[in-house]
Amino acid sequence: MTESADRKLWESDRPDLMLTWLRATGKITDRKLRLFACACARSCWQSLTDKSSRAAVEVAEKYADGKATNADRYMCSKSAYWASEGESYLAWLTLTEPLNVVELAVHHVVRDKAPLLRHIVGNPFRPVTVCGLKRKPFHNQYAHVDAYGGFWLEPECPFCAELRTPTVLSLAAALYDGGDCAAALCDALQESGAPAELAEHFRPRGEKCRHCGGNGSLTGWNLLVSTTAAITRTCPACSGRGFTGGEWADHPRGCWALDTVLGKE
């Protein structure tokens, strides 16, 4: 497939095809796969009336993060198996080892979860990272402009240490465990100099984007071409919408932005 076709697939509403592509290209880890399954199960939490099914999802989340043993997973899986019908079957699937992605992709609960999958994986065509120093859509004294108007960081940039302040890490850990502190984390990330796309991900829904002032675009200069020719590009923080917050009020375990801050994969 061409990159254009890959992008079109990624923006589609077919999580089954998206999962196949992610696995084939190695753009999703086993941990994120399992946490995506858990997030799908939590989206129908009220339908999981059996205690063993809810326990299965909770153990699967711990297992994905290395906080539950294989013996824990096996024993909980045996208990949840007898209630594995409908939504409860999805809960049992979260504990399969290796994760049964084929059954997961065709489950009726997962069919409309393409946005949730994008929330967990992020944008594979323009990753925003803290470590590894991949492309970061922001500018500071350590950055320079590439030929396409994107900002890059020098390898010796101390950004990583500056971003992961004790406040940022404590708020991110609390949000990961279900706390209600997304707005506070957004402010803390901005104070630490985080990329706008990362910080604004946690801003409450519907607020005007502070990165572009609500314009939806940024104007700069491509120094490799001309010192006077201005270039305009879509604001990476709000994807050109002029406001932030998107469609998510909650951030599930595995959320790409939380994982980026906490250094998880």
- Radius of gyration, whole Å: 20 Å
Shape: globular
Counting helices, strands and paired strands, the structural category is mainly alpha
Strand order of the largest sheet: 1-2
In round numbers, the mean pLDDT is 79
Number of strands: 4
Percent helix: 40-55%
Topology order in helix (H) and strand (E) letters: HHHHHHHHEEHHHHEEH
Low-confidence stretches: 132-159, 222-227
The count of domains is: 2
Q: Major sheet, described briefly?
A: 2 strands, antiparallel
**Terminal Cα span:** 26 Å
Total helices: the number is 13
Strand content: 5-15%
Could you please describe the fold and organization of this structure?
This protein is mostly helical. The chain has 2 domains: 3-121, no CATH class; 143-262, no CATH class. Helix content is 45%, strand content 6%. The chain is built from 13 helices and 4 strands. It has helices spanning 3-10, 15-25, 30-42, 51-64, 70-81, 87-93, 101-106, 114-121, 159-163, 166-176, 182-192, 196-200, 256-262, and strands at 143-145, 151-153, 217-221, 230-234. The strands form 2 sheets. It has a two-stranded antiparallel ribbon. Helix 3 (30-42) packs antiparallel against helix 4 and helix 4 packs parallel to helix 6. It is globular, with a radius of gyration of 20 Å. The model is unreliable at 132-159 and 222-227 (pLDDT under 50).
